[in-house]
Amino acid sequence: MNPVLGREGHTESNAMSEIIHFPVSNKQQTSDVDAVVEEALKAVPKQDREKLRFELIKTIDSYDAFFTEWSLTLPKEGNEALKKQIYDIAHQEHARKMLMLKDIMRLKIRVLVAEHRRRN
User: Fold this and answer.
1) Exposure pattern of 25-59 as b/e (b: 16+ CB <10 Å)?
2) Which residues lie closer than 8 Å to 72 by C-beta, 6 or more apart?
3) Burial (CB count within 10 angstroms: exposed 0-12, middle 13-18, buried 19+), residue 9
4) Is there a contact between 1 and 74 (Cβ–Cβ < 8 Å)?
5) SS3 of 7, please?
6) Helices 46-62, 27-41: crossing angle, 10 deg rounding
7) What's the CA gap between 100 and 110, in Å, rounded?
8) N or C: which end of the chain has fewer CB within 10 A?
9) What's the pLDDT tens digit per position in 55-70?
10) What is the pTM assigned to this prediction?
11) Where are the domains of the chain?
């Protein structure tokens, strides 16, 4: 079985792989990122804010599934304890990737605002 890890909180299967959707468990961190974005955008005139938000979204989308899905092959012959350890490590890796993505968002909005200020 070759699960593909995602972010919705459930598992989907098809003929070749299993999709395991991971939930984003800490909503406070999401709002922290939103607060950073909103604070940075205060320095930008209102008419230009949506353009910068769109640029931020384009940047995040450019990573495609790198942060939200990835393959994990579990050994068919492995015991359940080994499979659980692998699954636990996958959850840890997912959490690490989400933190990286949030850091990228925080830094990218600062870059976008700085570039906007320099142009105007």
Assistant:
1) eeeeeeeebeebbeebbeebeeeebeebbebbeee
2) 2, 3, 4, 5, 20, 86, 87, 90
3) exposed
4) yes
5) coil
6) 130
7) 16
8) C
9) 999 988 888 777 777 7
10) 0.65
11) 25-67+74-119
